[in-house]
């Protein structure tokens, strides 16, 4: 007799965390409600209208007029791989940075796409130097230059982007920018800055669940994609095929993540309602209060003010404590998520996000209060009361 009893499981009850790590961030209630609306088919005329709206809203968030602006079905890494895997052809020379974890991922993807990777040297925790980039461009004359606009592993924002892109274009190189932790949170101007390809993730400053990830390409970049001599190695992420679905034809390519597109649409509507420049200003003001608080209690930021990244605050771990234990205690005691460092900065920094719906005064006061309490209980030389007072002053 067949066993008809399935596995016994309980209700789905994940903890209610306050998400102040490097992503995901807290999701706005309107976005969660959008995900629960009824499904339609991915070629339904109603969904086609939603696709059009999402593309226009993405152009607003990227500050671009690029026709080819879409959400890739997948996480931010899928958008990253779509950008690199389509633009980089076998035999291309690709110039990439060494100053963070995600520069290393860019290099790895470029190699898998058949590119020859050369690197711009810069220490972790520092931005790329425009002179060093210019020298590397002159030496290697690459086909593609990539950089990380907001490096999540170090808390560093790349300044002087137009200088980098102008130097790359002087050598006829296309520019790919990783904007995963900057879109919707810090100033980003794809067209004005001369960026040819930009990709992002929805789960950070857009405060949207992962699953549909922003990507935009200039006409010049798309021309390179469509004139490739060799097919893109990924069928699923081949933009010459996706053009049929996201372009005018709306022909079947794959089943789009309908609920994630709903969510992205609502998250982008929130961006547009707030106003993109007002949103950048909010992130800087709220993250500035967080920065004031951690410095007020006696901690140090990893990045100097000139290239501090408001959406991802890298804070030096004080002497006498272990970063993983602090993060675990914050989860256990306060249901609060922050993260440890990656790569060269593993064990040396806390990564505290201030992104999207999480970038609110009450969250910043909460994280400064909780972090100060946990650090003090572990014997670190901090002044939690001074940290909270500094945060409150900065928020006035």
From TrEMBL:
<feature type="compositionally biased region" description="Polar residues">
    <location>
        <begin position="1"/>
        <end position="11"/>
    </location>
</feature>
<dbReference type="InterPro" id="IPR000192">
    <property type="entry name" value="Aminotrans_V_dom"/>
</dbReference>
<dbReference type="InterPro" id="IPR015424">
    <property type="entry name" value="PyrdxlP-dep_Trfase"/>
</dbReference>
<dbReference type="Pfam" id="PF00266">
    <property type="entry name" value="Aminotran_5"/>
</dbReference>
<comment type="similarity">
    <text>Belongs to the class-V pyridoxal-phosphate-dependent aminotransferase family.</text>
</comment>
<dbReference type="InterPro" id="IPR024169">
    <property type="entry name" value="SP_NH2Trfase/AEP_transaminase"/>
</dbReference>
<keyword id="KW-0663">Pyridoxal phosphate</keyword>
<keyword id="KW-0808">Transferase</keyword>
<protein>
    <submittedName>
        <fullName>Pyridoxal-phosphate-dependent aminotransferase family protein</fullName>
    </submittedName>
</protein>
<dbReference type="InterPro" id="IPR015422">
    <property type="entry name" value="PyrdxlP-dep_Trfase_small"/>
</dbReference>
<feature type="region of interest" description="Disordered">
    <location>
        <begin position="1"/>
        <end position="28"/>
    </location>
</feature>
<dbReference type="GO" id="GO:0008483">
    <property type="term" value="F:transaminase activity"/>
</dbReference>
<keyword id="KW-0032">Aminotransferase</keyword>
<dbReference type="InterPro" id="IPR015421">
    <property type="entry name" value="PyrdxlP-dep_Trfase_major"/>
</dbReference>
<feature type="domain" description="Aminotransferase class V">
    <location>
        <begin position="41"/>
        <end position="341"/>
    </location>
</feature>
